[in-house]
Amino acid sequence: MKIGIAGTGGIGYASAAWLAHAGHEVKVWSPGGQGAAALRDAPLQAEGVLQASVRVGVAADAADLARDAEVLLIAVPVNGHKNVMDQLLPHLRSGQTVIVSSMASLSALYLYEQARQRGADITVAGFGTTVLTARRSGPAQVRIMTRRSELGVATLPAARSEQALALCRTLFGELFVPQANCLAATLTNINPVAHGPLALFNWTRIERAENWPQYHYMTPTVAGVILKLDAERLALASAFGLQVRTIEEHFAKSFGTTTPTLAEIAAELHAKRGGPPGPTDINTRFLAEDMPYGLAFCEVLGAMAGVPTPATRTLVQMASMVLDRDLAAENDLIAALGLRGETLAGLQKRVSA
Fold first, then answer.
1. pLDDT tens digits for 193-221?
2. What is the CATH number of domain 190-351?
3. What is the CA radius of gyration of the chain?
4. Which of 160, 232, 308, 315 is 20 to 30 A from 300, comparing alpha carbons?
């Protein structure tokens, strides 16, 4: 298949390597400009769970990426979703499938509704998290740490769920399971729940750029705060008639953990993997992305559904104080989707279209 990937960070590179190694014709685009420049002259080298050297194309812009692609995969940080989607929208055509990996703040719904308004009958598949975990290790190198054992996928329109599921399995394997809708996929993502406390309670380590293995520092106290956030996430899902797995179940499905409590799971992962290292940049996505597009989004859902979210609100306020920024105001999808004026029933109808 002809596949276009928007994004040249760790997930973009890892996905490109995985798909090209499987025989697909892959082209990547760096929305920031020069992120893929090295791939014009050199093969993409993957190490870790995939050892491969593959050739991938480099698109000049969004139009070039979308022109011949049968499938597009958006693999940029969530704070870049709207911008990248807005650049792609004029070039999307009926029949294409766009995979959003991974979705947050209902970014897949934004893309689908905007495309429909433009007359493009596309299919959008949203992942709750990424298929692979990976980090770029050089201009044309990527280290792929993990391929998840199970991953939910939600489809717009809902009637194309089986086709989208089959496509995802063709591209990445049999790990996919269907989810009720894209709100379920959004609320499945546990990153904001885990990343916020990890970053805030290890902030001095981040400021001093220390090497800190994050699971080792998911201490019982930090794990306890994470569980309070997770309880609010689960309550939100229930209010919308959805059932999503707990954070402990997430780790068991993603990484094969066997211990029951979150603190024990963190210790188990540290013993097995020794990492990954925690962030060392004060602009870490753990706050800059996961707070506005994860927890602040959940606050809006809570107001819509009448579900109290005091722990979620506190974490967003703490992160905003630490960074001296209004993180909730940085989410550009809440207003674009009209969520503050939406009702529970209205949103349920939209995500199940």
1. 999 999 999 999 999 999 999 999 999 99
2. 1.10.1040.10
3. 19
4. 160
